[in-house]
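New to this. Help decode both lines:
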Amino acid sequence: MLFEPEHDFEVWGEAEHGLDAVEKATHLKPHLIVLDFAMPVMNGLDAAPLLLEKLPHVILIMLTLYANPEMEVSVRNVGIHALIAKEHAATRLLPAARALFVETAGQA
C-alpha cells in the first residue's frame, strides 16, 4: 500500500509466501522486492538467496518484527540490502528503497 501512490514506484505483484515470491519474481523480474521474514511455506530469509540467484541485481528489503543486531547480520549474510522493523515501515520503507536505488545505480 505504501508504494501504490508513489509516482516513482509501480507495484507488479504480491506473493502469499516465500516460494510464491520466488516464482512470481522469476516471471515478473522486478527491480525491488520487499520480503516479510515470517511467511508460510518459505520465510523471507530462505527465499532471498533463491531470488538473488535468479535475479542477481534485484534490491531486497526485509520487513520483520524481529529487528535486532543478530537479524541484521543474518539478512546481510544472505544478500538482503536492508532490514526494517514493521513498526517503522510506514516512515522508513520508501526512503530506504529510494536510497538503495541510488546506491546500486551503475552496479547492474
